[in-house]
Amino acid sequence: MSDAVTQRTEREDFQATRDPAVMESADTGQVNLLTYAELYRLWERQHWATQDIDFTQDRIDWHERIDPDERFQRMYGLSSFFIGEQKVTDELGPMMRAMPQEDMRIFLSTQIADEARHVAFFNRFYEEVGVLESDTLAGRLEETSEHLNPNFHTLFDEMLHSRVDRLAREPEDLETLVETITLYHMVIEGMLALTGQHFIITYNEDQGTLPGFVEGFNKIARDEHRHVAFGARFLREMAQHDSRYADAIQRTIVECGPAADGVLAPPWYEEGMEVFGVSLEETREFAMKALERRLKVIGLAPVA
Predict the structure, then answer these.
(1) Span 256-295, pLDDT tens digits
(2) How many structural domains does the chain have?
(3) Domain span at residue 168?
C-alpha cells in the first residue's frame, strides 16, 4: 500500500465512517461499528455539492496535458464508475424496501441520494471537461459504456440485477437481501470501487492532473466508506442471527469472485502492464486486504 493511500485512509473523515478496511484494529476483528442512526447523522455532517467543484483546470489538463493514448486508457476507470453509479442508483430501491428495520431503510435512502449525486458529479465532469461527444446524460452513459469489459456486465446486469429483481418480488426474502448486500457493499463497492478510487486519485495526485476531479472523487470515496460501513454492520448482525446468512455471505463472495477479479483488468490489459501506476497484482492485494478486514469484523474467515 503506497504512503499516499495509507495517508488517505487515515484521514479523519474516512476514519469517522468506521469502515473496517481503514481501521488497523480490524486485523484482529476489533472495530466498534457505528449504529444505523450514527451512520445517518454522519451522512448529514458529510454533505457536499457537485456544483461547488471547479473543473476549469481539469479541462486544460484533459486536452493539453494528457495525450490521446492515456485519455483512452483512463476511460476504463471513468466509465466503470459513471455506469456503476447509475446502475446502483436504479437498483437500491428494492434493497431499501426489503430492509427489516426502519433505521436501516432510512440509512439506505441516504445512499440512494449519494449514488445519484455521484452520477451527477461524473456527468458534470464529462460535460465541463469535454470528455465525450454526447451532450446529454443518457447519451454520455451510452457512449462511455463502450469502454467496459464483459465482467462488469456480469456483475451488475446479471448477478446484482437478478437478486434485486427477486427482492422486488419478494422483499421478505432475507437470504437474498444478504446476498445482495454482500455483492454490492462488500464486493462491488467495497473491493472494486474503493480500490479503484484510491489508485486513480493517487495517480492524478502524483501526475498533478485533474484537481477538480480529485476533490470530488475523494468525497465520493468518503461516501462509499460510509456505505460499506453500513453493509458491514448489517451483515455482521445477520451472520450472528443465523448461520445460513453467514453461509450466504461466503457463498456469494465465492460465486462472484471470478467476475470481480475480471473487472480489475481493462479490456486492453496485457500481462505485466501497470494501470494507474500500479500492477494488477498490487491492485488485487489492496482489494483483498480490504475484504479480509471487513470479513473479520463481520465474524467470518477470509474466503479462499
Answers:
(1) 999 999 999 888 888 888 888 899 999 999 999 999 999 9
(2) 1
(3) 57-298
